[in-house]
Amino acid sequence: MSPVKPRQMQRIRQDIQSMHAYAIQDSAGMIKLDAMENPHRLPPELQATLGRRLGALALNRYPAGRVNDLRHALAAYARMPDGFDIMLGNGSDELISLLTLACDVPPSVVNDLQQASILAPVPGFVMYAMSAQLQGMAFHGVALTADFELDEPAMLAAIARHKPSITYLAYPNNPTANLWNDTVIESIILAAGEQGGLVVMDEAYQPFSSKSYLDRLTRHSHVLLLRTLSKFGLAGVRLGYMMGPRALIAEIDKVRPPYNVSVLNCECALFALEHQQVFEAQAVDLRAQRAIIFKALANLPGVRAYPSDANMILLRVADVQKTFEGMRAHRVLVKNVSKMHPLLANCLRVTVGTADENVKMLEALKESL
């Protein structure tokens, strides 16, 4: 193959060339606790049933009405409020990208002629900033406090100054795994609405959380609720969904590619919702395992574990690189998040696994400190 010539590389945006692609760690032969996946697989009898169902699909046809069946099933499962609608994405990542695309309003239309922007607390989910950069929008990250709470004055000042098109609030947050103060959240939502912006409550980890924003969703006409089936137990299926006022969803849906959810994704998701009690039992088990891990970590010298409402726990250790490499040598793969933000210095993020995986993770951690 001929090498790419410099003239052709000039056709690729310079900011894209300077970016780093989203990194996925090699997990072959490892206990994989780095990506907040549900470690439980379908029982064998359900695997067989699903296999027969997928084998009977008309793969020669584009997705059609079955996608609407899934929209209705998800709306019922999520208890979507009246007057709201639901939009599907190839994972919530695609929905974040589509939101950015839809809200990239030219400066001549934005208040005070400012560039359209996205705002979120940091450290947070990397796709908020990445989607802004890919669309050519500004991203404004507002640092959390030292104990990973929302900095209300800083958030309100940033909203007043930048008038963001979208403000993201992850509930609970990634990678810190905590919920934030409801009164502060409400203050931020009101401030963003006064500036004419949207607020997205990102509840990716809702199956493991003690709270949801769903019951407060109808208080505001500018708030969207974003969720995914990845943490539900279908990370490999890639299915995200977003609920919001019908008029808002109708406009954002215009930028969605046709047939963005495959018949395979759709049927797997419908099958999972029909057997949701299986996945709910898995979530109960993982919440129990989370409590067991947290208790064990509290008795481990040299480790600070932060409270979690997700299927992950954030740890701070004395020497993060030594600990990370030591755990990897013990065939346990976790996420080194220490370079994501200064607040995460010497921090690892550990996914809650099965009981056996968690025992091995704790053993590897003890040996690697």
Query: How much of the residues is beta strand, in percent?
Result: 15-25%
The CATH architecture term of the largest domain is 3-Layer(aba) Sandwich
For CATH, the homologous superfamily of the largest domain is named as Type I PLP-dependent aspartate aminotransferase-like (Major domain)
Task: Report the total helices.
Answer: 14
* Alpha-beta classification: alpha/beta
Which CATH C-level class of the largest domain is it? Alpha Beta
Q: Please give the number of β-strands.
A: 13
Strand order of the largest sheet: 2-8-7-6-5-3-4
Order of helices and strands, N to C?
Answer: HHEHHEHEHEHEHEEHEHHHEEHEEEH
- CATH topology call of the largest domain: Aspartate Aminotransferase, domain 2
Q: Tell me about the biggest sheet?
A: 7 strands, mixed
Brief descriptors of the model:
seven-stranded mixed β-sheet, 2 domains, alpha/beta, 369 residues, globular, four-stranded antiparallel β-sheet, Aspartate Aminotransferase, domain 1
